Backbone:
């Protein structure tokens, strides 16, 4: 749990205690007290002990965090990397069973969806909100995320981006559909129809594939992870 360092020091000074006296009063080790006052992080048991010693509510020891803080350890980062690598590997295996991997790659469509989503994000939450969402991808590799209101705000941005990704995919699909209809109208015969459908069907499907990958395999897991820690 994240505590307010300034509030902890203020309460101790108000009591006229040294860190040694505080450690004795709450039954914690001196090293634990020093670490809590330095980092502002404490277990639930330590928070209860400190609250009891100061005769305040545990909530009173928490600060209104202005930034999101996370526990970055090598083992947890490596575990997240392994899980993401497995997901990507499974996706590539699934795709390769059906067709060549190159069939699923269309950079112009991917760039259009990304640009539309970014522009809509800027319109709704500003450039800072967009940059915050990009920086927030790193929390896929973190545990024990703390931040209160900033977490809620970032999760809300990701929820909006999920909607924008699907809206961008629909827009790209509609533009592609118009192009297909125009092409068919120029020359209406069976051979030409076969050619048009051969190159247009992947183009009409890929926007939704990219939207599902971006929304359900990146943005929604990020949002869910943030909200889980918000509820803790």
Residues:
């Amino acid at each position: 749990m994240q505590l307010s360092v300034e509030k902890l020091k203020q309460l101790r000074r108000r009591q006229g205690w040294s860190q040694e006296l505080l450690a004795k009063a709450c039954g914690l080790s001196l090293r634990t007290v020093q670490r809590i006052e330095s980092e502002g992080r404490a277990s639930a048991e330590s928070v209860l002990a400190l609250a009891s010693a100061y005769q305040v509510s545990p909530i009173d020891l928490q600060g209104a965090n202005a930034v999101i803080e996370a526990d970055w350890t090598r083992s947890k980062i490596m575990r997240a990397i392994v899980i993401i690598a497995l997901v990507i590997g499974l996706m590539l295996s699934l795709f390769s069973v059906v067709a060549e991997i190159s069939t699923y790659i269309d950079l112009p469509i991917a760039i259009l969806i990304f640009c539309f989503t970014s522009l809509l994000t800027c319109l709704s939450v500003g450039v800072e909100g967009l940059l915050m969402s990009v920086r927030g991808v790193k929390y896929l590799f973190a545990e024990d995320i703390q931040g209160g209101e900033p977490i809620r705000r970032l999760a809300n941005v990701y929820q909006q981006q999920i909607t924008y990704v699907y809206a961008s995919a629909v827009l790209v699909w509609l533009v592609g559909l118009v192009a297909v209809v125009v092409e068919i109208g120029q020359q209406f015969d069976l051979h030409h129809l076969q050619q048009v459908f051969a190159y247009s069907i992947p183009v009409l499907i890929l926007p939704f594939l990219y939207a599902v990958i971006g929304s359900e395999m990146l943005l929604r897991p990020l949002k869910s992870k943030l909200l889980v820690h918000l509820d803790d």
In short: The chain has a mean pLDDT of 86. The radius of gyration is 26 Å.
